[in-house]
Amino acid sequence: MNNKSFTQFAIAFYLAIFTFQLSAQNPPEKFGRIDKEDFKITQCPIDSNAHAYFIFDYGESYFQYADTKVVSTDAPSTRKGFQLYFTRHFRIKILDNQGFSWANIEIPLYHDFEDEEKTLQIKAYTYNLEKGKIEKTKLSKGDVNVEKTSENWMTEKFAMPNVKAGSIIEVEYTIKSDFYFNLREWYFQRLIPVLQSEYHVTIPEYFHFNQTQKGYFPIERSQDRKIQEVTITYVEKAVGAIIEDGSYTSSIKYFEDIFDFRASNIPSFPIEEHLKTPENYLSKIEFELDRTTFPNAPIRNYTSSWEDINENLLNSSSFGKELKKSSQLDDEVERLKASGLSGQELISAAFDAVKSHMAWNGQKNKYVTSSLKEAWKNKSGNAADINLNLVVLLNELGFDATPVVLSTQDHGIIHPAHPSISRFNYVIAAVKDGEKTYLIDATDPQSDIDLLPVRCLNDRGRLVREGGGDWIDLTSKSNYTIAESFVVKFDENLDIIGTDALKLSGYAAYQTAKKVKSYQSQADYEKALQDQKTGLTIDSMTISNLDSLSNSLKIKYTFKQHGIVENAGDMAYFSPSFDPFVSSNPFKAEQRDYPVEFNYPYTVQQIITIEIPDNYTIVEVPKPLVARLPDNSLRYIYNISQLGQKITLTLAFSINKAVFLPEEYSALRNFYMMVVDKQKELLVMQKQ
User: Fold this and answer.
1) CB neighbours of 122 closer than 8 A, spacing ≥ 6?
2) 224-267 pLDDT, tens per residue?
3) Where are the chain's structural domains?
4) Minimal CB count within 10 Å: which of 184, 204, 400, 630?
C-alpha cells in the first residue's frame, strides 16, 4: 500500500483506533497513608449522632481505546473500540457497631451478551490502632463473592476484615466497561455524613452527555477544556507482492471536556417516615449519552424515545414474543370459559387462578426467566413470569390485557423526560372491561383488582402494546379505611372490659390480612396483639373475610385492659381515646427538605362508648374539636358527648393527598402534633 492510500485508510479508521492520554486528577489522599490522629476522632466532626462517616469519597471517569495498535489482518470483530474507565477511592471511619454495615461493599457490574464490565483491581484494607501502632488487614481475593442480581447485572460483594468500633476502612477499585454510554452517576450525599466528595469526568469532544443534578445539597461544579493529542498507529502486514510489514503513524489533536464536581461537609440524608426511597432525593449527578459526533461520520443519537422502548420490549424474546405463546394455559382457558363467568367476575377468576398456581420468587424483573411455559410448569417465577402469564391468560379469555412496566418504589421514580429502558424493573397487568381499566399484580396472594402491592405504587407506569405505548397512573385506586367501634365499661378495679369491632377495607384489609397470615395460627396473632399493648388480655376473637378482600375484613374480639386509669385519692383520670390511631408524631425533624409521600388516601374512624361506674361522677370532659388544613388534605374530628353515665367519643382522621411538599411540612407536622396531644387529653371523674 502506497503512502497516499495508506493515509486515506488511516484517516478513515482513525476514530476507531485512537488512544486517549488522560491527565488524571489527584485523589484527596494517597492510598494507605493513614494518620494516627484519625483514630483519636470519636465522633463525626459534622454530626455527633453518626455511627460512621466518609472521610473522603473520590471518583474519576475517563475514556480509553481498547487497542493501541491496529493490524491489517485483525478481524474488525476483535476490536473492542472505546472503553470507559471508572475509579473510586474512599475512606470510611467506623465509629461504633451500628456503623458496621458500611464495611459491607458492593460493586455493581453490567453485562450484555459479549460485552461486559469488570473490575481491574480491588485494593481494600482495614486499619486499627493497636498499642499505639497502626495495624492493617488486607482483603483477601477469596472473600470477594459475585452474585447475579438481575438479568444484566452482577454484583461483586465483600465484607471488610477485622472491623471494630474505631476502625478505618479504605477501598479503591477500577472498573473497565465496554459500555461507553454507561458513564456512572455519582452520589455526593449518602445515608452517613461525607466530609469530602469529588467526581472528575473527562469526556472527548465526540461524546455528548446530558447532565442532571438531583437533590437539595449544593454541589460545586467547574468545567475546563484542554487540547489533547491522538497517536494513531496502523500496521500493514505483508500480503502477496508486499513482502515486508509496513506501518504508519500520525497525530491528531482534539479537545477534552473536563468536569469537576466537589462538595464538602455533606450531611447524612435524614430518613423519616413516609418516604418511598431516598434514591429520588439524594444529591447526585447523572449522565446520559445523547449522541456521538465523530468527524467524517454521521451523527448517532443514543437517547431513545419512549416509543423506541415500546418497540424494543415488544420485539424482545424475553418479553413481547413470549406474549404470543399460550399453549401452557390451554387447560386453564378451557376451564375458565366453561365456568360461565363474564366481566369482572371472570377477570377475578383468572387472577385467582394465576395467584394460586404460581408463587413469586421475590425477583423484580421485566423480563421472563426463560419462558412463560417453563415458569407455568415450575409453578413459580419472577414478576414477569407471573404477570405476563396473567396477561396471556386474560387475552385468551377475550379481554384486552396489556403489560405495564414500572419502577418499584425502592428503584426510584421514572423521569418522563429521560427515556430509559433500564429504569423499568417490574411488570404488572392492565385489563379493560368495558370502559374501565384495572391494574393487577398476581405476585402477591393478598393483592386484589386495583389493589396493587405497595411496592408498585410509584407515580406512573408504561403500557406496552402494539400501535404505541402510553403512560398509566399507578396512584392507588383503593383507600386505607378502618371503621372501629368500642363498647366498654369499668370493672371494680377500674380495668376496661368490653368489645372492639373493626371493619377494614382497601389497604387496611390488605395489610392486616397479610399480618394475620404471617402467623402460624390465629392464637399466635392474638398473642402478638396482646404483647403490643401493656395490660391487654384478649378473651375471644372472630375474623371474617380473611381470604376475600373484595369484601371488608371484619375482626371482633372481647378484651380486658389494665392500667388505663390513673388514681389519685378519690379522683380518677383516663383518656377516652385509650387506643389512639395516631399514638406518636412520625415527623420528628423540625425541617424536611424533601416531600412527604403517602401511598394511599387514609381514613380512620372510631366510635368509643364508655359506661362510667355508678359510684363515680364525671367532673371534666375534653372539649370537642374539628380541625382541617386549608386545602382539606388533612382532617380531624374529636367529638365527645355525655348522656348520664355514658360517654360517646367519635374520632375521625383522614389524609386526602398523596404528596406534601417541603414548604407544607411544618403545617403537616404541627397537625400531627395537635392530633397526638388531643388524644392524650384526660377525662376526670370523682368517686362519690
Assistant:
1) 107, 139, 144, 156, 158, 171, 172, 173
2) 999 987 776 777 776 655 566 677 777 778 889 999 999 999 99
3) 3-301, 306-473, 480-687
4) 630
